[in-house]
Amino acid sequence: MEQPKIGVFLSDCGKQLSEILDFDALTSFVKTVPNVTLIARGSEFWRGKGLQTIIDSIKDKKVNRVVVAESLTKISDINIAQAVENAGLNPYLVEVIDLKDHCVWPHQKTPKEATEKAKAMLLAAIERAKLLEPIEKIEFPAKKSALIIGGGIAGMQTAVDLADLGFEVNLIEKQPFLGGLSARVGRFFPTDDCAICIQPPSSDVKTITHTSRKCVYRSGFSEIPNLNILTNAKVVAVEGVPGNYKVTIEKKPRYVDADKCVACDKCVSVCPVETPDEYNANLSKRKAIYINVPTVHPQVYVIDEDACKFHDCAKCVEVCPTNAIDLDQKTEQVTLNVGSIVVATGFREFDTSAIKEYHYDDYPDVITNLELARMIDGFGPTGGAIVRPSDGKPAKKIVFIQCAGSRDRRYNPYCSGICCMISLKNASLIKEANPDAEVSICYIDIRTTGREHEYYYERAREMGIKFVKGRPTEIYADEEKDKLIVDVEDALLKRFLDLEADLVVLASAMVPAEGTEELAEILGLDLEADGFFKEYNAKLRPTETKQKGIFLCGGATFPKDAPTASLHAHSAAMKATKFLTSGKIVKDQRTAVINQDYCGDCEFCPVICPYGAISLEPTTEDHFVAQVNELLCEGCGVCVGTCPLNAIELRHSRPNQMEAQIKALMSMNGTSKPLVLAICCQECGHTAVDSSGMAKMQYPANVRVMKVPCAGIVRVNQILEAFKAGAQGVMVVGCKSDGCHYEVGSENAEKKMDSAKVLLKEYGIEPERLEMFKMVYIEGAQFAEAAKMMTERVTKLGPLKLMVTEGGET
Amino acid sequence: MMTQKTEKTTISFSDEVTSRHGGETLTACYQCGTCASSCPVARLDSSFNPREIIKLSLLGAKEEVLSRDAIWQCCSCFNCQERCPQNVEIADLIYALRNIALEAGHSPNIYSDFASALIAEGRIVQISKFVEKKREEYGLPPLKPVGVDDLNKILSATGFTKPEKTEESK
User: Fold this and answer.
1) ipTM > 0.85?
2) pLDDT confidence of residue A211
3) Which of A52, A291, B158, B169 has the fewest C-beta atoms under 10 angstroms from its C-beta?
């Protein structure tokens, strides 16, 4: 490799740093360091003339390593790297340190000590720079196409967005018709408008304005040329990598040819088979050949395999004027090649029969909100009449029970979030149609937090709906009265009420859609403890998953009302667009590399990698070595910290680079206190150090900070190296466990430090000399406190005594 | 309806309850009232309402909870505990409150009588002639005497003390 020629650029940040630090001493010190060929001093190096100095020294003075001492590191880093790259040097041959926030400000009362620390920091940066290696960019092709799983409101909205933007979109729906839950509920709160409309595609030339919403079936949605809709279909296998997935889809037979069917309804009138209509909560019957409601998409009939007599009957075939019916259709396998996948599988009602005391299975007049919604729908089984399913008589007394399976640690501990509004909607719709109906809602807390939602609650009270604050303990049947009795305490009155009801409506909890676990397995996605899909970070990276290229939207992540599902859907479309739009994924090679000579036959790294980036590949029949997928690798180094054989390294954070840094940081003290090394992850750990400095929080200058990609990269032998190099104490600073930027790094580091303490004891080193800390960026005060505490602790312990073994090693 | 005034609250009371065996789940309560409507005692006696006992404990109305008779009226049917959606162990919690009450010198005198009988004879309920006769009729062997000395060793080892009799609470 080319001999390193290091340029060191010292910024005094408008003289403020040189007021504290002895810059002449720093310059003379740097001059003595081998391989340093250029030293420049200035006021700032991250922009303007300063930045030009760096560029010139690369171009003219042939500097091939750049060390910059600046403030504002996070911004400087970006600008300097960009400028260096433009000057023709690899941007990873740069090391930027922050003398202001990491040295001058936190140690402003001890200028001499600060100057010594600054020397150590500069030396560490130079030593690391010497060992840096160029890191190249790699490109992966990305197909400009997407698969959207789930044809409910979220999936359809995402599909329209992506199709409008010109991507090839495949929308698949498990059911024979699109619409999902939103089509079934009929109306949406808080406007009571029709649930089945969507924003029409902009490719529809006849759409007068883009604000005009349309029913799915007349929206022109199905005619978007680059949208392929597959109903009655589900994903059975996914292979490949982000940008290039091969998806296998199983398409169940519809037995009706969509291209021929004219929806004339003749088949339905001749079909002799009647079967309970599941779509309508089994409140009515339908034929074996059917369509859910007249307003669905596609307007093509479907045959219920379980009910149809096929060739034993075939009456529909005879009557069909277009020969659209094919009783011999078979299940098809369809293979799609897509760049991105959006999961929009939604949620469903919890099976309330689990709550035995509510007797959902025993009493037909105990129903759920979704079943009630079907009754309210004019296209529904009762034509909009509210009846008792047991005898079909009108229901005059209706009692709603909230939180049926939600906020219940026996079933679903979470609040489903939308059921209060759903019950308010259904109760109001009933009351509106039948003002004489006696409607009560038993609740624990009414949650109406959205815009306009509180007015909805207000209107319900005005309409005369009764509210009982109490969760009923039981529903029982009073046969004499021919009523159900809801047994509840009104907690506000401290009175027991036996509410009579013709119909009891359970506001069932909302749980993940059927098949969620199976799909998560196929896609390699994580689920939350509640069973919904896990978003990468609900605040910063909503709709993203740990798999690049796979996105989530709508109720698949948690129950949502329509506006929220829609918002989420558009967000997912945006994320997918960002991912697909250039047709390629560009990534630098800040990734892990395997030394195949050492690696073999253990499974630590493939199991620990939070991104599934490492696999074991056979080299010979019985020998396996790890292989890193560079597209998936995030370069955190959790694998490095786990490998028992030192067989895996990060290109941008090699062990020799880290060792050189540790030695340099510990090579000079200059304070009266024992040296403490703080190994900080580049995320929250290192930024907590930034923030303590930015706030001028004081801690002693004997604490030396080293940045690593993630606390998870730290190895036990590096802790020992630090003690050997002169550290009297070692701090490892990572993110909070649930906030680790690499999922498991911080937690693993903590476990490792616990076992390292045991090992230290064996070596005769007091285990208290090592401590793991977890903090977030804003906890600068915690870092300063921890630094002071560790200093005091190791001062009390006295100088470290290393055991000398026979070989002279410690 | 008369609204009662809660005289004094002790902030730490809920901590005292949750640190007790059986009282750990107190803070999970969100006052839905499932316990109250499940309770057979509450139906008969309006002075007993498990939801109210929990609410008063959460508020820290220590004196009120400990000195009133309510906590002694639970019949331990565990209906409430079975149905509580927050898994509050209500019946166990009431035992915990009774233990605190006993230590604070609040208990119905019948418990003192039970304790005296247990210490003296090893049984809470004495064996009556009636019971002996009935057992004989059914062909059951006579009840064996309890090893009172051994029992007392256990009682003193576990810190069981006889509650002092107090003026009957109302």
Assistant:
1) no
2) 55
3) B158
